[in-house]
């Protein structure tokens, strides 16, 4: 079994990395597990523990998008949370892109669901870049004051040009992502 997910990789620019490090310092009083700035991506489909016999089927599904996958630009902007306001669980930045990412995610889900018995079809897909997982908060008002400072902040614009099937190995130092299959966008 391999722990798999399909994602759009993104390499943050220097300014975005510096601002996220600044954000981490501003929120240092909270228990937040920050995502490595070297592992940033948007997950299109999380497959979880998957039998290796399905690898070729998954690769075929990704390959089938090749003819419709063109390079496109996204912007990362603002900060938001998943979870309720009193008990947020995930801190993320919005992924703005005119629905291209949603189309890719739903296309993959539609192709893979009948083949792999994916039970969690995410029809309310929210394109985002996870910055951290919140373990606990004290002084919640200060937390939201910091988030408000970033409400209109742009972390930059990026070109999306690859879809990658990753294997994720959980280690004591954090997840290790290994690319298994890549489809490049049509230029």
Short characterization:
With 187 residues, the protein is α+β, with helices and mostly antiparallel strands.
Tell me what you see in this structure.
By secondary structure, this protein is of the alpha+beta class. The chain has one domain: Cyclic Phosphodiesterase, Chain: A, CATH 3.90.1140.10. The protein contains four helices and nine strands. The chain has helices at 14-26, 55-63, 100-116, 140-149; strands at 2-9, 31-34, 41-50, 72-84, 87-96, 128-136, 154-160, 162-171, 174-184. Strands 2-6-5-4-7 form a five-stranded antiparallel beta sheet, covered by helices on one side. The chain has a four-stranded antiparallel beta sheet with strand order 3-1-8-9. Strand 4 and strand 5 form a beta hairpin. Helix 2 (55-63) packs antiparallel against helix 3. It is globular.
Text of the CATH class: Alpha Beta
CATH topology: Cyclic Phosphodiesterase, Chain: A
End-to-end C-alpha gap? 35 Å
Quantity of strands, as a count: 9
Placed side by side, the strands forming the largest sheet appear as 2-6-5-4-7
The poorly predicted ranges are none
Count of separate structural domains: 1
Note the beta-strand portion. Answer: 35-45%
Helix and strand composition category: alpha+beta
Q: Give the CATH architecture.
A: Alpha-Beta Complex
Order of helices and strands: EHEEHEEHEHEEE
Task: Indicate the percent of residues in helices.
Answer: 25-40%
**Main β sheet profile:** 5 strands, antiparallel
Average pLDDT level: 91
Mind telling me the CATH superfamily name? Cyclic phosphodiesterase
Label the overall shape: globular
- The radius of gyration over CA amounts to 17 Å
**What is the count of helical runs?**
4
């Amino acid at each position: 079994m391999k722990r798999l997910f399909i994602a759009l990789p993104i390499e943050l620019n220097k300014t975005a990395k510096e601002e996220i490090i600044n954000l981490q310092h501003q929120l240092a009083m909270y228990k937040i597990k920050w995502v490595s700035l070297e592992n940033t991506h948007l997950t299109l489909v999380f497959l979880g523990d998957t039998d290796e016999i399905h690898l070729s089927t998954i690769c075929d599904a990704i390959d089938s998008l090749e003819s419709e996958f063109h390079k496109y630009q996204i912007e990362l902007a603002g900060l938001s949370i998943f979870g309720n306001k009193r008990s947020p669980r995930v801190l993320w930045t919005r992924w703005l892109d005119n629905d291209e990412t949603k189309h890719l995610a739903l296309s993959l889900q539609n192709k893979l669901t009948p083949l792999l018995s994916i039970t969690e079809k995410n029809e309310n897909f929210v394109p985002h870049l996870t910055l951290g997982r919140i373990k606990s908060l004290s002084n919640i008002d200060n937390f939201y004051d910091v988030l408000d400072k970033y409400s209109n902040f742009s972390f930059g614009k990026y070109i999306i040009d690859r879809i990658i099937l990753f294997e994720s190995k959980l280690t004591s130092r954090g997840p290790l992502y290994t690319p298994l299959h890549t489809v490049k966008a049509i230029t």
